[in-house]
Each structure stands twice: as C-alpha cells, then as structure tokens.
Amino acid sequence: MPAPTILVVDDEQLIRWSLKDRLSDQGYRVIEADTAASAIARSEEGVDLVLLDYKLPDGDGLQVLKKLKERDPDILVILLTAFSSIETAVEAMKHGAYHYANKPFNLDEIALLVDKALETTRLRREVKTLRANQAQPYSFDRIVGASSALVTIKALMRKVASSPASTVLLTGESGTGKDLAAKVIHYNSDRAQKPFMNITCSALPESLLESELFGHEKGAFTGADRQKRGLLETADGGTVFLDEIGEMVPGLQAKLLRFLEEKTFKRVGGSVDIHVDVRVIAATNRKLDEEVRAGRFREDLYYRLNVLPIMLPPLRDRADDIPLLVEFYIDSYNTEFKKRVRGVAPEAMKRLQTYGWPGNIRELRNTVERAMLLAEGDVLQGGDFTIGGSAAVRLGDRVELPPNGIDLEQLERSLVVQALERTQWNQTRAASLLGLNRDQIRYRIEKFHLEKANTH
Predict the structure, then answer these.
(1) Which of 241, 360, 391, 418 pairs as cysteine with 435 (C-beta 3.0–4.6 A)?
(2) Contact at 8 Å (CB) between 69 and 95?
C-alpha cells in the first residue's frame, strides 16, 4: 500500500518547507502548492489530506475548501490560519473542514493532528469497503488475476452464472479456489437471493451425508427423533455446492443422479417425492474420467455433472497473477493487522513467482499472512517468507545439494516414500511426519507417480 499523500498549500515557502520536512520524516508523501489555483490542480493527483492556508494570493482557503469538497466529499482538510476566530472556525467546519490550527503552530501538534486525520481516512475507506462487500460479497473482482487463462475462465463463469443450467462441475487441484468460484457463480446469478448451501462429501460418513443432503423422517434411524429437511430442500430456488464430489460413495452417487435427472428425491425413511429447483455445483480435485475408468465413479453421473465444466488452473500455471494476488492479500492483512506494509522486494517477488505452490492460492495466502505477522519492515523481504510448511526454508536462505550425488528430486521422493511406508500409506499422518499438509503430500504423490507397487 503506498504512503498517504499530503498536499501542503501555503504561499510562504518556509512554512511549506518546514511541514514537508517533518511529514516526510514520518513516511508521508508530501506535495506543495502556493496558490488557490495550484491547490485545486494538484489535488487531482490523488491526495489523502490537505493542509490549507486560510489566506492565499488569489483567494481564501474557504473557497478552496468548498471546491475540494465538491470534487471529493471524503477528502480531509485542516485549515491553517493566523486570523483565528470563532466565526472562522464555525465557517470552516460548516464547509467540511476536519480541523483547524492557529499560526504560528507547533510542528509536533500538527504532526499528531495529521496522524489522527489520516487514521480517520483509513477508517472511512475501510467502512466503504465493508459496505461494498456486504452489498456484493462475491463479485467477479474477488477472483484476482489478469492472466489469459483466468480472463477466459471468468468470462465462462459469467456465462454460466447467467444461464439456466442446473449443474456445473468445477475441477482443479486443491487450493485453486473452487469454493470461491462456486459462490461467485451463485451470487451473480438470478438465484442470488436464495440460499447457498454447501457440504464437503468427504467430511461425513455415508449415512450422515445422505441425511444431510436429502433430510430424514422421524424414526428413519436410531436417533432420528424428528423430521429434518436436507440441504436440497433448504436450498430450494438457490444453489447446493457439493465439494469433493469424487469422494462420494457409489450408493449416494446413484441417489444424486436420480435427483439430477428427475428433480425429485425422498427423505431418508420417507415415501413421498419432494420436488425442488436447485442448481448443483460439484467440485473435485480428482480426475473424474480416470475415476470412471477405475470403477470408482459412476459414468452416467459424471456425464450428467460434466455439462458445464470449468477447470481452475494451478497457481504455477498462472505465475503472472502472483503479484496481483500478493497485493490483494497485503491490502487485506494491512486492514486486519493494522499494518502499513507497502509491498514486496523485487527479488522476493521473483522467488514467489518461481516457486511451484503445490497448495496453490490457499498456500500463497497463508504464506503472505505469516509474512505480514512476522515482518518488521514496511517492505516484505525474501527472509520474511517461509514456504512449503513447517519444514520449509525461508526464501532468502541458501539450499545446498545433498552429498553423495543425490539430487533434490531424488531426496524429496525418497522422503515422501519413507513417510508413506511408515504410516501404511495414511496420507494425513505421512504429511504430518514431513511437516506438510494433505494437499502438499497429494501433490508430491502425483508428481512422483507414487503407488504402493512402484515405491521401490
């Protein structure tokens, strides 16, 4: 985030120089004007605060104040005057001045007043942002990036959002933003005023997942002491997001297919068909065509879901978007952590763009968050970033090749294989041994084409 810009307007050069010298030392960008006309002209350069003299050669400060407020009602103006009176103060406040200071003034007091005024500006902008987010929390602008691949995908998502299609399939690696894409499609469609319901298919056992989706009747199973509406019924008119659809067991796949074909379902333990109108957005990081060939996913369900497929690319394939994403997260965390980080050093950014990001956008976001929490300067350096989980090295560190002629690829593969074998191929436990998360070890299993039969 760039430093706030302050416009100092006074016809006395010594005053302008004194204010500029003090405020520049505090990290602010200071520009100057010595007349009313030049003040109006320079205010168009993107100004956060104006220190405005009451008496100018070609007009008075109140006239300038009125024009500044007409152009930008949110601009903050502190009036500087050697002719202080109650009438002057009242008139200045009436026309929107933030405060006024008497000449001769104390530089320390002016500096404190400037800090308070700029904090007010920051809070006002924050409130505006929050209101905009509440009005449209999932606009297409939330999908950050300008690469050709992302531009194409956003155009496709716009078409899908405005279409009457009842099924959409989002594919791509974990962490590529499938959940965000689902919400953007929903909230930019004519279903936006209706519910958006989501469930992760791998998070629940089969019986509980069926009840969550379709609901159940009282007495349908032990513990069903009352009737319950499922997500499909609750979301009538809206959208149901089925994350990790590739993990759904075959029995539920058949019931889901029937619903998609007929738009009706029965609650668990029920006999009455219930009709609802919902759009189903399914997401998976698995390659469903391969799952079909392996007999783990129903072919007919795959074709029913795959009417409108959208594949979200991994972050390593859109490295040009990384600076925009980093800037977006820095702005967000500046607000959340009350920091003033201005950006990333060029060498650190270059390394961020060349890293493979197996955890994709989620990993990048967490990496920037960690750097923002720990960094002491206002520009993030390579040493502020730690990538690849708890076992990783900082970007600024030097990595030495291991001895005995083993290259890094071989060493990495060997460590992954050992962790998997020690945990009987339990990916979560193996990831924990290596200081990785599940997405990161899945990426390495795919990268090295690891299966139990070929690990030796």
Answers:
(1) 391
(2) yes
Cβ neighbours of residue 389 under 8 Å, at least 6 residues apart? 434, 435, 436, 437, 440
Q: What is the DSSP string of 232-284?
A: HHHTTTSEEEEETGGG--HHHHHHHHHHHHHSEE--BT--S-EE---EEEEEE
For tokens 């029965």, name the residue: 266
pLDDT tens digits, residue range 279-294? 999 999 999 999 999 9
Amino acid, res. 408: L
What pairs with residue 196 in β-bridges?
Answer: 239
Is residue 73 reached through a cis peptide bond, with omega within 30 degrees of 0 on the bond before it? Answer: no
What sign results for the dihedral spanned by CA atoms 440, 442, 445, 448? negative
Could you report how far apart the first and last alpha carbons of the chain are, in Å?
51
Q: What domains appear along the chain, each with residue ranges and CATH number?
A: 5-134 (3.40.50.2300), 144-311 (3.40.50.300), 315-384 (1.10.8.60), 408-454 (1.10.10.60)
What pLDDT is attached to residue 1? 60
Question: Which parts of 269-400 are beta strand (E)?
Answer: 274-275, 279-284, 309-311, 343-344, 379-380
pLDDT tens for each residue of 328-345: 999 999 988 888 999 999
Higher pLDDT: 271 or 442? It is 271
Please state the pTM of the whole predicted model.
0.59
DSSP class of 388: S
Residue type at 288? L
Burial bucket for residue 29 (CB in 10 Å: 0-12, 13-18, 19+): middle
Q: How far apart are CA 121 and CA 74, in angstroms?
A: 8
Q: Write the pLDDT tens digit of every residue in 95-123.
A: 788 888 888 888 888 999 998 888 877 77
pLDDT in tens, 248-269: 999 999 999 999 999 999 999 9
How far is CA 242 from its chain centroid? 21
Burial group, residue 160, by CB count within 10 angstroms (0-12, 13-18, 19+)? buried
Residue 189 has pLDDT above 90, yes or no: yes
